Amino acid sequence: MLCREYVLEPIKGEFMCRVLCYPGQSHDCCIERVNEMYSLGIDEVYSFGDTLIGSGVRVVGKGHAAVVVLARHVSHGVVALKIRRTDSKRHSMETEAQILMKVFNTGYAPRPYVYSTNMIVREFVDGCTLEKLIELYRGERNALLSSLKSLVMGALAMDLMGVDLVEISRPHSQVVYLCCAPERPFFVDFESARLTSRPCNMTKVISFMVSRVKSLGIDVVDSEKSMKLLGLAKDYKACSDNVCREAVAKHILDILSNI
């Protein structure tokens, strides 16, 4: 989903190969991945985003295992296309896609449309990272608190699904708020996600809120509340079932609602 109108610049020829086969661009890889992309229904890829690769090609994101670009799907319109890097230690994108299939109905993850060995076509979440959201709403206490409460609710949703997000320990850059709305966080990085009976997304989020939030400019959680949140995070970590997790999460949200 795009939150506003953009002038989108299609990528063609050699530049397409740089994106699809990043960081290499061999002829054989290019042919193979162009065909793979077309088979998934992608008919256009755009130079779009804050990250540059090569000379002048912009992408939505670049990680250790994959590159994310804005693209057009024949049925779904503008989408995010995640492409496995040719130097990635991962052999396939399929596990990540299957986890996305499991959690997108929570409302805190982008919808996956189709995937293959090297690519995932999913919903594009246009908006602000938590770090940018804080800058946008600096001084607006209610909006900042809303962003933290919605992040807690999202972490709980992932925990209830048994999905542990390794990258959530850095939510300031790994969470995107749809159209910069404080109540609409989306977890967009499932690269290192895993299924487990003891997920700990909530404890990571609370740790971030207590230790890092003030350094990012949100001075809304005082020392007394911080100690209570850390105590509840410890209780949450000790939970062995979802009933317990939901009960502790309610206390966490109560504290954030009464700051």
Automatic annotation (TrEMBL):
InterPro entries: Kinase-like_dom_sf. SUPFAM superfamilies: Protein kinase-like (PK-like). This is Serine/threonine protein kinase.
